[in-house]
Amino acid sequence: MSISLYKPESRNTSNWAHGTTTELFIYPARASFQERNFLFRISTATVEAEACDFTYFEGISRQLMVLTGHLLLTHEGHYEKALGPYDQDSFSGTWKTRCQGKATDFNLMLREGTQGSIHAIQLPAGVTHRIHSPYDYCLIYLIEGRAALQDNTSIGPRDLLNLPKTEALTLKAEDDCHFVITEVMLPGS
Q: Where are the beta strands (DSSP E) in 50-174?
């Protein structure tokens, strides 16, 4: 099995104007968020201000899922959307977006030409779930709980798995677990 496991202690958390952000994965590996030369990036962030404006990102689409808390996103000239735990919204990084509320969220940023999606799954203790994705990247983020992989490797909160395109993975929930699955197709695939 060539599944890669990324532990929380290997990540950097930095401040942004209204909270913190933690990069979970960026592609290509040598890309830089600051230079905006990535094809895709996943991260978690805290929104700690009651109201704030999101950063402008030229050529990038965003998918945001609330993990804890509640947010009201107002995309000026487009629509408004209220988000609670595991609700999500997809929008252009060029839209003027105002955010109200406090939350922890999960973010997928995609450069033009890169396609992807995020979705949450919940596994009650003792339940197994098999994952096989046709996408170039399938990243599995454990939000809470403990689970075991088919080789008995144990994973815990904030662990991230990178499942290669040609492989399948069986997860067994040791506790009640919540996961976010990110699937990404690179340009030209």
A: 51-53, 60-69, 71-75, 79-83, 88-92, 97-100, 103-111, 115-123, 128-132, 137-144, 147-149, 154-155, 160-163, 168-173
Torsion sign (Cα): 33, 34, 38, 40? positive
Per-residue b or e along 83-114, where b marks 16 or more CB atoms closer than 10 Å to that residue's CB: beebebbebebebebebbbbbbbbbbbbbeeb
Burial class of 188 by CB neighbour count within 10 A (0 to 12, 13 to 18, 19+): exposed
Pair 151, 181 in one domain: yes
Q: Which two tokens stand for residue 64?
A: 């945001």
**pLDDT tens, residue by residue, 113-162:** 999 999 999 999 999 999 999 999 999 999 999 999 999 999 999 999 99
Residues 8 and 75 in one domain: yes
Residue 1, pLDDT > 70, answer no
Reply yes or no on whether the pLDDT at 12 is more than 90: no
Last residue of a domain, one of 54, 85, 111: 111
State both tokens at 142. Answer: 């454990």
Cα distance between residue 112 and residue 108, in whole Å: 13
- Residue 48's SS3 state is coil
Q: Which is nearest to 40 in space by CA: 87, 93, 77, 88?
A: 93
- Rounded Cα–Cα distance for residues 27 and 111 (Å): 10
| The model scores a pTM over 0.85 | yes
